[in-house]
Amino acid sequence: MKQDNRVIAILGIGTAVPEFHLDQADTSQRLTEALRDTPNSARWAKKIFKQCGVESRYTCEPNLLESAEHCRYFSQTNQTAPSTSDRMATYKRESIPLALDAAKKALADAKADVSDITHVITVSCTGQFLPGLDAVLTQQLGLAPDVNRIPFNFLGCAAGLKAICLSKQIISTNPTAQVLVVCVELCTLHIQPSSDREALFGASFFGDGASACLVGVTSDKHSRVFQLGNDRSILLQDGADDMKWDVGNYGFDLYLSPNIPKLIGTWIPEQIEHLLDGGPRPALWAIHPGGKGILDTLEEVYDLEPEDTRPSRTVLRNYGNMSSATILFVLDETRKELENREAGPTSGISLAFGPGLTCEMIQITYLGVGAKRTAILDEIHV
Q1: Catalytic: 213?
Q2: What residue ranges define each of the domains in the chain, with the CATH number in brackets?
Q3: Staple partner for 179: which of 39, 167, 253, 381, CB 3.0–4.6 Å?
Q4: Tens digits of per-residue pLDDT, 174-190?
Q5: Is the pTM of this model over 0.85?
């Protein structure tokens, strides 16, 4: 009897960004001009913009490309800053086409049809409306009206990976299921008209983007996939006050503690060891670039080489932190590197962090194409 060598995997990935490009040096200069009456804040902003590891980002808001005098999101302008209601109206208008774009690309990458989708998980923490993104995507993608819709709202940067882990768990009990995960984040809508350091720090490296993936059981038509292995979700100790978003009058107020990299370096190694359960050291490190300091810390703790974190740093440099959507950009960049060097099966780990502090992690294996992929499929199955 022939062995069923199919595995649960990310079958396709799609990414999308808005049309408006934010050059980091230009944005820093315009923000510094807006802070001319608070020189200490201006100097600090200039420093953090230069050191955060970001060179460019994308935004759905063209006003963020205007001069300091006319940008409603920068402090000390002669115009009224957008209210939370204004920002949510922009979110509703701009998030839908971006999410649709990423979802269609993921389905095309997986060679899948909308009729294959049994579950859709929508993920976002930068805006809300009802009927929600899950309902809108169901209608505009042409999904079945009885598709199982699961919205993940306001869970932060780790939610994209959490959705992937949940998808794997769903398919583990129902191998015929196919789960479409769609993440969309418009982080730049929450840039604050403030000279506070916390607000300026958030303004320095968050960007807008959408990503999607299809999770299901592999078939002969699938290649360049990531098999999904064991996963783990953990609420770290002593981190509840270190990463917070509150709804304010002018968007969402973000606070990120400078202690986050230290906390991750202290608590995460034990959790990774628990996940690996005595297995070998990961060859792949698909890390959500929540900030340059997080990547620096994990490089130091695990003695990683620059190539180990290159996909994460590339995404941070070119797109910034797009909250939940970012991890699929990292996996896509990782896949491109592996494909370019015609890599065989390669195992590793994916990590993402969010408010709580929460850490989501899952073991991944890139299966590649052709004979190299077939060799490992002969050894693993659902």
Answers
A1: no
A2: 226-377 (3.40.47.10)
A3: 167
A4: 999 999 999 999 999 99
A5: yes
